TrEMBL record:
Organism field: Lojkania enalia
InterPro entries (alphabetical): Vps62
First and last residue of the signal peptide: 1-19
Stored PANTHER family: DUF946 FAMILY PROTEIN, VACUOLAR PROTEIN SORTING-ASSOCIATED PROTEIN 62
Keywords associated with the record: Signal
Protein name: Vacuolar protein sorting-associated protein 62
Keyword Transit peptide carried by entry: no
Pfam families with a match to the protein in the record: Vps62 (PF06101)
Keyword DNA damage: no
Length: 348
């Protein structure tokens, strides 16, 4: 191989490495995180038209004001991830900017060619070891803004826009082997056998819907009008495809959760903030009243709704693979938007 060909070959290898998600030994996960929690961690495909990418946790605090009933309240200054727990459950982290102006900070950070959100901590991995080899690993994803999407394809008719957006996958492990995976979607979601879902190697794929960031197991169109159904079209549609690839492990905090004590402990020690996980308030604005010129409300649905609660409110010690929300826990075995062949399992 002459020198010119060697240079081209080397440059090609470097470019290929930069474009691929980091290998396990390149990820900066702290010591103590179970290797299988990393090995089987989901990869997320963001939509090709996405405008609101994963967002840095501290950036959300820096660009919001704690409010209760739309009034500013006393709060630590500056507000950060180590003192957020000083705020009460009635607090809304309210945007300093008029959201209709689409400020830059709500757009988040688009993953680079290596699937990393550079200079932004955009995820949290929470491990609940229940003993006897039973472990639930939660992969929490944060976005500064949720665009609810169009209703019936009408741009002016939108429901469910809100500041702040927490989504997640949960994988249930038995003695280090993944058995089931949960995909959060709006007020509910879907559960699948691990062996049924699409993967990149061992890592399951999640497809984040355009704007709303609901997680699905397949690309395409998903109507979510009826809980527990995933239809190929309808009134309230989510859209997923292979836009930008995001590896949440590359910019995440890692925690162990003790359900009995309701306590979090950081893998990696004092350098990782823990206090923010105890905040039970909302990570966005309170739903605007109808007197607000930005608000439209039809059939009980608001164009701008309240921001979400954080990871502590996601049933981290759930019995079923699905959270307990009044719906049956369906463990799906197929990836098409219908229920034929699905398995209804109670108490799992």
């Amino acid at each position: 191989m002459n020198m010119f060909r060697f240079i081209i070959f080397t440059a090609t290898l470097i470019a290929s490495a930069a474009a691929a998600p980091a290998k396990l030994d390149q990820r900066q996960a702290p010591a103590g995180v179970p290797d299988y929690v990393l090995k089987y961690a989901p990869l997320v495909w963001l939509h090709s038209a996405e405008q609101y990418f994963p967002s840095d946790l501290q950036s959300q605090l820096s660009n919001t004001i704690p409010r209760v009933n739309f009034n500013a309240v006393a709060a630590p200054n500056p507000l950060n991830l180590t003192n957020l727990n000083a705020l009460g459950a009635d607090v809304y982290l309210t945007s300093k900017d008029d959201i209709t102006t689409n400020p830059q900070w709500i757009k988040g950070v688009k993953p680079d060619g290596a699937a990393k959100t550079q200079n932004a901590i955009t995820a949290a991995v929470i491990v609940n070891d229940k003993g006897n080899g039973n472990v639930d690993a939660f992969y929490m994803y944060f976005y500064a803004y949720n665009w609810g999407g169009e209703v019936l394809g009408i741009d002016q008719l939108q429901f469910g826009n809100h500041v702040g957006d927490w989504e997640h996958n949960m994988i249930r492990f038995e003695s280090g082997t993944p058995t089931y995976i949960w995909y959060s979607q709006h007020a509910n979601g879907q559960a699948f056998k691990y062996t049924s879902v699409l993967k990149d190697g061992l890592r399951p794929l999640a497809f984040s819907s355009n704007g709303s960031h609901a997680n699905y197991a397949i690309p395409g169109t998903h109507d979510h009008t009826i809980p527990n159904f995933n239809l190929p079209g309808g009134v309230l549609e989510d859209h997923t495809d292979k836009g930008a690839l995001w590896d949440p492990l590359l910019a995440a905090y890692y925690y162990a959760y003790d359900a009995g004590a309701n306590r979090f402990a950081a893998y990696g020690g004092d350098a990782t903030p823990v206090e923010w996980l105890y905040f039970r308030g909302r990570w966005g604005d309170q739903e605007y009243p109808t007197s607000d010129k930005r608000q439209i409300k039809l059939f009980g649905q608001a164009k701008y709704s309240s921001g979400p609660t954080g990871p502590i409110d996601k049933q981290l010690n759930r019995s079923n693979v699905c959270p307990d929300n009044g719906n049956k826990c369906i463990l799906r075995t197929i990836l098409v938007p219908k229920r034929a062949g699905d398995e209804v399992v109670e108490g799992l």
